[in-house]
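Just scan this pair:

***
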Amino acid sequence: MRQDDHLIALHVTDPSDRDEQLLEQLTGYYQTECDKLQDTIKGCTAVLKTVLKTPGPISSDIVTVADKEEADLLIMGTVELSKLTKKHKLGSVALAVAKESSSHFCVVKNTSLV
């Protein structure tokens, strides 16, 4: 990132499955990461947006926000939860976003949960 760049950390949550304690923990974590980024790269802005999932695939919610915000780049994390194959595959949500979005797309492999 450079100065004058604008980052939106997007958290899409399902309103029917609301664990308030978990939501509060996640919000705090994401906000801390946004604050760290702003401290590291002076002049950039990093904000957290929490969006309630609408009926349909979650990928559509992500693409809708990306289009509305005119995102140049989408960065998503993905993790392979199957320990049987030991192979890392693109998750279904990340794959759908990559197909639906007109923005550039980057996937970050998260191995901390495996």
User: Anything to note?
Assistant: The helical segments are 20-40, 58-68, 92-100. The chain has a mean pLDDT of 78. The beta strands are 6-13, 45-52, 73-78, 104-109.
